[in-house]
């Protein structure tokens, strides 16, 4: 996508974000935070519930929490100056941080989660069996799209072989469509993979070989204006996120109690999901530069791939 077209897409939808985020840009002590659906964003729920930013910030701060349906929507908020801190998949984060003029960088890793291509059609065993069937995933250039492209390159020899099969849906809407039979495939993450397995959906083997367990799924980003103009608040956010991640890892039963109602399951089921080996909460990135290289090689980026994590992340971020 040409840069002018890409920026046009970003700014055309900014009005939607403006209606959600009445203030932002890191000015004063008002903070606008954007998250999405799914277990990957659990540390943000802990931060909100336990008021961890307020705990770590030596001052008064008014926080507005918003839930959006995609990383591109959050990117639009950063572009328009109406989101200060948010979390999204690695793919959209790499696009945002390598787009010229975008005032945002990665400030922490957040989580790895299971990703699976789920189907209601047991005859679909591999990508070669899909044909012209639709695949529900969040949207074009989402991390799910990038993972599908990585798998398509491996199995079909063309990263973009299944681009025309994609139908954009939020994770919850995609699950509903899969279970109702409106679509036969969804590439999604937890808890939707767990819920779909419980309903008899099966996995098309495709993703695990291109994106191993533990590789980053969700990263946190902050506006450069926030980091530069209010470094104390920026540091408080980073510290709050680290504390939330530590709390989840060290208090899984309590975390299960906190998250279960939000996902419509009992605490025992949520605890089982949290203990899945692919469910990892960590502040250290893993695989981000590998995904960025793939994206640059296959036309997902306007510019070259970042040579080092420091090209797209603040100095406090550790990983690869």
Could you characterize what this model shows?
The protein is α/β, with parallel strands linked by helices and 320 residues long. The protein has 14 helices and eleven strands. The protein has a six-stranded mixed β-sheet, sandwiched between helices. A five-stranded mixed β-sheet has the order 7-6-8-5-9, sandwiched between helices. The longest helix has 20 residues. The radius of gyration is 19 Å and the shape is globular. The two termini are 26 Å apart. The N terminus is likely disordered.
Secondary-structure element pattern, one letter each: HHEHHEHEHEEEHEHEHEEHHHHEH
What is the gyration radius calculated from CA atoms? 19 Å
Computed structural class? alpha/beta
Q: Biggest sheet, open or closed, and with what strands and sense?
A: 6 strands, mixed
The amount of beta strand, in percent, is 15-25%
In one word, what is the shape?
A: globular
Q: How many helices?
A: 14
Distance between the termini: 26 Å
Helix proportion range: 40-55%
Sequence stretches where pLDDT stays below 50 over 5 or more residues: 1-27
Number of strands: 11
Strand order of the largest sheet: 2-1-3-10-4-11
- Rounded mean pLDDT is 89
